[in-house]
TrEMBL record, chain A:
Residues 527-629 form the Fe2OG dioxygenase domain. InterPro entries: F-box_dom (IPR001810), IPNS-like_FE2OG_OXY (IPR044861), IPNS-like_sf (IPR027443), LRR_dom_sf (IPR032675), Oxoglu/Fe-dep_dioxygenase_dom (IPR005123). It holds the Pfam family 2OG-FeII_Oxy. Coiled coil: none annotated. This is Anthocyanidin synthase. Residues 1-42 are annotated as: Disordered. Residues 31-41 have a biased composition (Pro residues). Residues 1-20 have a biased composition (Basic residues).
TrEMBL record, chain B:
Pathway: Protein modification; protein ubiquitination. GO terms for biological process: jasmonic acid mediated signaling pathway; protein ubiquitination; ubiquitin-dependent protein catabolic process. It comes from Olea europaea subsp. europaea. It comes from the Eukaryota. InterPro entries: SKP1, SKP1-like, SKP1-like_dim_sf, SKP1/BTB/POZ_sf, Skp1_comp_dimer, Skp1_comp_POZ. Part of a SCF (SKP1-cullin-F-box) protein ligase complex. Belongs to the SKP1 family. Keywords: Ubl conjugation pathway. The keyword Mitochondrion does not apply. Residues 114-161 form the SKP1 component dimerisation domain. Pfam families: Skp1, Skp1_POZ. Involved in ubiquitination and subsequent proteasomal degradation of target proteins. Together with CUL1, RBX1 and a F-box protein, it forms a SCF E3 ubiquitin ligase complex. The functional specificity of this complex depends on the type of F-box protein. In the SCF complex, it serves as an adapter that links the F-box protein to CUL1. PANTHER family: SKP1. This is SKP1-like protein.
Amino acid sequence: MGKKLKRLKNKKKKAKAKAKAKAEAASSARPTPPPPPPWLELPPEVTANILHRLGAHDMLKSAQEVCTTWRNVCKDPSIWRVIDMKNLGKYHDMSVYLETTCRQAVDRSEGQLTDIYIDYFATDELLQYISERSSQLRCLRLGGCYGVSGDGLSEAAKRFPLLEELHLVFVMSCNDGIEAIGRSCPKLRSFTLSESSYKHSQLPCNDDALAIAKSMPGLHHLQLLGNNMTNEGLQAILDGCLLLESLDIRRCFKVDLSGDLGKRITQKIKDSKHPYDSMEDCEWNTDIFDCKENIRFVRTLLDFAVHWTLKCGGQTTTGEIREKWTGSLLAGWVGVKIERLRYMAVKEQTIIDGSSTDETKEEEEDFRSCCGDEDEVEDTEELTKADLKDDLDDYSVKMYFKGVSIAGPGDSGSRLSGIGVVMERSCNFSPIRVQKKLDFYVEESVADYLALLDGLSEAAENNIRRVFAFTESDILYYQVSNFPAPNFPATSEYAKQLRGLTSKILSALSIGLGLEQERLEKEVGGMEELLLQFKINYYPKCPQPELTLGVEAHTDVSALTFILHNMVPGLQLFCEGKWVTAKCVPNSIIMHIGDTIEILSNGKYKSALHRGLVNKEKVRISWAVFCEPPKEKIVLKPLPETVSEAEPPRFPPRTFSQHIMHKLFRKSEDSGEEK
Amino acid sequence: MSSSTELTEKKVFLLKSLDGVIFEVEESVAVQLEVIRELIEGDCARPFISLYNVTSEILALVIEYCKHHAETCSGGTSATIADEDLKTFDNEFMNVDENILLELCSAADYLDIKSLFELTCRTLASLIKDRTIIEVRKMFNVENDFSVVEEKAVRKEFAWAFK
């Protein structure tokens, strides 16, 4: 460049003084020092200002390695007073690394830390680490951190006596710590608690509001987003927090501001946002976190499944799976590998009229148009496809999934969500398709997630063991791959108990057939071979349940199936010619017999034909465990003791996997036959 | 700031760059330079103000920036349109080579122009972001001045993080 820049010897104030002193004396001196690299000439505080904008991670990871000047700037504790570790989603599967980086940043602050922002990877342990070193903390912001508990937060809060701002955005189950936090941090002026709009429990609940009212009287600013509080809770807040200047209760749909309460807010609070106000200018990126929670659910589901297969089955082990599918999202029940699909041949989307009878067709078109046509997929994903070709066996699919959400112009316009999934199989089978119009509207990121979930359910129904899933949603991709696998001690205990119960029931069933006690257990594989598989069914609430079925009528291929549920009725059994809804008895477990026992008993025990319905008001979740015999090892046929001349064998001998194939083909060849 | 402009007649001030070039600016522009505003208030701004740290090339750019901002803000357009306009202008304005950017940043710091300082810092940060260490060095012509030992130490410090 060759541009001269006189060395800045002094800080601004001195410079000003100089300028003043010399203002009258016109200096004609033309200093010409050799041009040094401009970066090194910036005052350190300017360099610090610029580098700080990179965020804690980039400062530690790269900036400080550029040159000694930058390194020295990055060593100064004052640059670490504000640690920003937001939006680091791209470092997927590296939460441990991010946590260690964060600890290092905290170390560098040498106790001067005043503000810290963390998305996704915070844990109770990390909070403890920070709290032990940062008594000056004034602002803490956690986004989408599911590794943080209410206890962890309230413990940490004890060491933050100066805390003025606390923002908790989609931090799960922190709610029970609110009161303790309020008591520990008397200076708290600003508090945010934001829930996902897609929360599992939609019941009115004033716990959060009451805790805030009780323990945070000094609040000036309160954001309660998507909370399930009612007017009672809001009233308590207004009574308890007399200093409130701003109140944001967007998405709190259980609050009614049409009456006096609304007036009171308008009169008392300078700046208020109401439940139905737009979220557009919301500084918390709610879509991402919303989606995150959904992903958490998928991950939970998958991780449960992995865990279960590992704990209960003899066939699959972690080592095997991990080795085979390194770096991908996995489960024993369904192995899922998510790839990003980069193609965007989106045609103008037509708005589907809700009453149209050709919905399915139009949706199909819509879905197609969103996905581009298959040729394009082939073009852009040639590499991946070639890679995968050999991997597709009879139990694998490539799954392309997509959620579509269309909002008509304006708030009053028709809004519609749908999902589409295409699963390509090896050449022996026709593709599996799932296309649904949802009876509720969700944002597209959520619809994407639902498509994935439904696709996985469908895959499981079809006994698919591996899914290569493709998404064009970056958000979904990063989030699925970013979420650390949780550990579930409760699950393994449940597995253990359930395995005991299985033995008891099988022996009772054996006695019922006039066999020795251990006979059925032996026939289905015994302790060594009987595989327990875990599945979680999630039925969103549905305004018009009569129009849809959650899970269509079927019998299970398993020997026995155990079901736990969240006390929302929906499971129905076909009994004496009609559908009967199973009662929800508290503290009970539902058990029914599957095809395997029906075959072994030559039809003396019936495999229960059942289906799952969705509920109008409540989300239904059921946790099902299937006890299945080994795939190939055992040939299932009616036991000789159950066969006589009067009762000839009703089922031909088949292995478990042959039975599944038989069922599958029967289903696809003749759908008129009873499923 | 604007009220004083309206009350008094349009005053002009002379700014002299490091390389001796003299610029004539109106008060509404000059007061955006915090340093100069202080000088004006202290009545130390005559006959001209020498700015030893800013070359004529950079000073011309700074004045262009301040002029545009002064005009847009007092132009009577609605706030949102003015905002949009400034945004476009700022984006265009930042479309210069990295060394000019650095000098602008340094000048904005020295002359104490908050909005320009913020803008240049933000832009510089975005240039560094997502680039590798080597790319950053190349882009800003910064030498790797670590000794072999130091460099090893830096790497070592980070090795543990990847365990």
